[in-house]
Amino acid sequence: MDASDNESKRPTLGVGMVGYAFMGAAHSQAWRTVAHVFDLPLTPVMSAVCGRDPDAVRAAADRLGWAAAETDWRALVARDDVQLVDICTPGSSHAEIAVAALEAGKHVLCEKPLANTVEEAEAMAEAARAARARGQVAMVGFNYRRLPALVLARRMVETGRIGDLRHARVAYLQDWLTDPGFPLTWRLRREQAGSGALGDIGSHAIDIAQYLAGEPLAGVSALTETFVRERPLPEGAVAGLSATGGAERGEVTVDDAALVTGRLASGALASFEATRFATGRKNALHIELNGERGSLVFDLERLNELHFYDGTEPPSTAGYRRILVTEPDHPYLEGWWPPGHGLGYEHSFVHQARDLLLAVAAGEGPEPSFDEGLQVQRVLAAVEESAANDSAYTRVPPASPVSPVPA
C-alpha cells in the first residue's frame, strides 16, 4: 500500500477560509502542503473560500486550490463540508466570524491579532472556552512560533541553557509606508485594523517574546507615532473622507511606529520596537534573550540559524556560535529535507496547520489559544494607554498560562 492509499483512508477535515489576499495565500499554501509532508491523523480538504467579489473569489479559488467559492461568510460557516473555519480577514470582522463559527460547531483558526479591541477578544475567548467543552478547538495564528529555530530557542530557555532571563528585546522593522504617496489602505484605518504597526507586527513581537520567555508581560511604558497623517484614497474608495489641494485624501487613524519598554512577570526587562517606517528594512525581525548563563539571538533574515552564547565556557574560548537548525531531530524537520537544506517563511504556516490538525485529532486545545491571543490584546491596549498618558507605566491584567513547548 503506497502513501496515497494511506492518505485516502484517513478521516478528512473540511476547511473553509474567509479572505484570500496575502495571509489567505499563505494559509492556502499550508493546507495544500501539510498532508504531503507530515504523517497526520487527519487529511485537510480545501472545501471553500469566501470573498465579497464573485469573480475575484472564484479566480482565487481556482488559483489557490479551493473546491468552491462563497461571497457570504455566513454561507461558508453553514456548509456541511466545512468543519474548520480559517479567518484571514481584517481585524474588524474577526470577532463576528469566529464567534458565529464556534457557535455553529466549527473549529476555528484566526489570524493575529485576535481582535481589534480587548472587549472583542474577551468575547472570542469566552466563545472558545464554551466550544472547548463541546470538543471544538480554536487557535490564533502567530506563525513565528512555528519556526524551527525559535521552537529550539524556547526549549533551550525552558531547559535552563541561558539561566534566569534578564533581558528580552525584539525589533520588528519594515519600510513599506515610507512613501507618503502610498494609499490609505484598510491597514491604516482604526475601524478596520484596530491599530497600525503595533497590532500588525508589534503583536508578533509581544507574542514571541512571551513565548520564548515562558512568561507574560506584567506592565509596559510606551511611545507611539504617526509620521504621515493623511494619505491618498485608493481607487474605488468611498468618498467623503477629506479633500486636500484638490486630491481626495483620508486621515491615517493608526500608529506608524511603537516603542515599548516593559517588565515580564519574573522581573526581567523587555523592550519592543515595531515600525513600518524603517527605510531599507523589508521584514526584519530581530530577537535577543540575555540570561545569567548565556544568550540567544535570532534574525528572521537568517531564519534557519540560531546563535547561542554559553556563558559557562572559559573566556578564552567563549563566543557566539551558530546553530544551523536543519537536523532531523530539530523541531518539525522530520518531514522536510536532508540536513543543511533550509526552510523558508511559508513553512511556518505549514507547521501551524500541522499542529492544529494534531490538536483537532487528539481533542486537545491548540496553542496559542484564544486566551493567549486575548492576553496579547491586553498588552496592545496597555501600550496604547501608556502612550496616551505620557508613557506612564501601565500594568497588564494577569494572563493565562503560556503554552507548553511542542513535542
From TrEMBL:
Domain called GFO/IDH/MocA-like oxidoreductase: residue spans: 153-296
Occurrences of domain Gfo/Idh/MocA-like oxidoreductase N-terminal (ranges): 14-137
InterPro entries (alphabetical): Gfo/Idh/MocA-like_OxRdtase_N (IPR000683), Gfo/Idh/MocA_oxidrdct_glycsds (IPR050463), GFO_IDH_MocA-like_dom (IPR055170), NAD(P)-bd_dom_sf (IPR036291)
Region Disordered, annotated ranges: 387-407
UniProt keyword list: Oxidoreductase
Amino acid composition bias (Pro residues), ranges on this chain: 398-407
Signal peptide region: none
Keyword Oxidoreductase: yes
Classification via PANTHER family: BCDNA.GH03377
Name listed for the protein in its UniProt record: Gfo/Idh/MocA family oxidoreductase
Organism: Streptomyces glaucosporus
